[in-house]
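User:
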Amino acid sequence: MEDRKTDDLFDVAVIGGGVVGCAVLRELSRYRLRPVLLEKCFDLGEGVSKGNSGVIHAGFNVRTGSLKARANIAGLKAIYDLAAGLHVPYRKTGKLVVAPDEEGRRHLEELKAQGDRNGTPGLEIVNAEAIRKFEPAVRGKWALYSPWTGIISPYEFTIALAESARRNGAEVRLGRNVTAAESKPDRFVLSTSSGPVSARWVINCAGLWADEVAGMAGSADFRVYPYKGEYLILDKAAGDILRMPIYPVPPRDESSLGIHLTPTMEGPVLLGPSGEYVDDKNDARSTRPVMDMLKAEAFRMVPALGRFPVIHAYTGLRPKIDGPGETGGPADFVVAESDRRPRWVNFGGIESPGLTAAPALAEMVVEIIGTKEALSSKDGFEPGLPDLPRFARLDDGARAARAAADPDWGEMVCRCEHVTRAEVRTAVRNPFGANSLDAIKRRTRCGMGRCQGGFCTPRIVEILQAEGLKPEDITKRGGLSRLVFGRIKP
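Assistant: Predicted structure:
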């Protein structure tokens, strides 16, 4: 590793604070390197990662021999232990891919064969009776059962990876939009919204904007096409009748995995996503026709879910690098050092199963760097994080003891999700300064319940003021998304 010429020279700059960028940063923090993560938004996981279904994929839906398949299986072997060490909630739930007829069964057999080739453990085809034993409310004649599929909180996982990296010496700089890149013999100089950042290596994990970031270094070898998926969220009572993700037999063209149903860690059930190419990488609109379609498709597989109310709708965008009308199935992941700009590594098209694959993709970066310079492990690397207690998960005795020791544990800020003032206070004081409603929501679940913030929002605003923020500086997601614009009385 060459000597740094100034204290401002980083060894590696990671662009993008989604799950892959944060996994890369954490993996780099194992070594005697000075890494920094640059994220244009004011919190982590604000892009593709926040719209993730939170499914830990077992690896049977990806083509044998592809980088997607290899990274999926390698990531599957790592992610459960990694999440446990970081105290990120997850469950190994299993999964059913349901077919209504014999033609669907033939497709399930093909999926199983592909999964067997990929190394997916424990796959089996089950009949209607077995489906009812797994999930009594699900309707289908045959299903592919995957015991290693699970669910995880994608935004909590992303944040925990970054916190672990920071704990091990990495830097995280939020609100740093990279606008240009200059290549010099010994470094890249990245122009950002808060001044230049120099680094010997650049790892482009910019998701939907990865092609534009790659183009800054003259190395755009791919184009990103935004692919929009809309979701509905059912009230958490729906979680009582659905324990595992339920998928239909996917379309033959492999354009998506179909409209599926996914329980979440805290109970609400996701319906979706839909799938359509759009022109705008910021198109987060929910639409009535798609909402109606999601309900119709989902309730066909699980009619009992139709009695639960929809509490929210949202949209995620995937960074596809195969455009509309292209044949041959979904494109593979791109993870490669630029031919024209040595030490610049691009990640392109990291869509599903990107969350599951993230730990493996991060190791690939270390392998790429290791081919050009010797890397030495850091003494004292701390793999885990402290466990932050959640009031909603404590028993009555533990709740009473905490409230007796600290009155803030006895004050409920969010009634839907049972979040206390103490938990919000801890979130606000976290290493990355969670001072927006969305940042607090991702760390505590305030605003994610049935009333969607109707009860907790004014209480969070009051806490933020008590922590030193002026009301006009409080935002929904940072930047210009202000909640108030001034006083009407002195």
